[in-house]
Amino acid sequence: xxxxxxxxxxxxxxxxxxxxxxxxxxxxxxxxxxxxxxxxxxxxxxxxxxxxxxxxxxxxxxxxxxxxxxxxxxxxxxxxxxxxxxxxxxxxxxxxxxxxxxxxxxxxxxxxxxxxxxxxxxxxxxxxxxxxxxxxxxxxxxxxxxxxxxxxxxxxxxxxxxxxxxxxxxxxxxxxxxxxxxxxxxxxxxxxxxxxxxxxxxxxxxxxxxxxxxxxxxxxxxxxxxxxxxxxxxxx
Length: 236
Hints:
By secondary structure, the protein is an alpha+beta fold. It has 2 domains: about 10-145, Nucleoside Triphosphate Pyrophosphohydrolase, CATH 3.90.79; about 155-230, Arc Repressor Mutant, subunit A. Helix content is about 25%, strand content about 25%.
């Protein structure tokens, strides 16, 4: 049995894949291999199959591109303007993914001609994909102000300066080093390692890693690493 007098609608999933290389945020894009907008830059996406949920489709699509499992993946919102796709009526549900660039860079599939682009120099994207990216950044800033979500972007070992750069890059602001360090360390999420990163100075900076149990226990808790007066972007 089917519903009578109803037209077909397609449902797609698009993954907004963020990475952080230790200095700046990047977005993983693919070069579209078919019309319309062939060879233009696009988010990684695909159609939801009859036997899939939205989450299952997003997980499959992300895995096809990156080879990753157990990645942070969160549903963002639906984009449903009738003319958003020139071929057929397609409702797209966007997902935000956070991955460690350094750990998984070699696993990215060559099939889709994927490339990491710095967030401040993105190419023109197809359809309404730029709107999806903007919405994803807004969601990421909101959640990162209260939860340790950005830790998903870090490698297994990192320094406190790298962590501070991670937060400063997202909020486009300068953060007081002493206050930030004190708040982060008081959360007990981090474990101090014995070795140092001496790539930028002779003295070096100690590496830290995440205490996985504390991190999981505190993920939904209120952890305000950044004062409210530092959450606003810098202005000239």
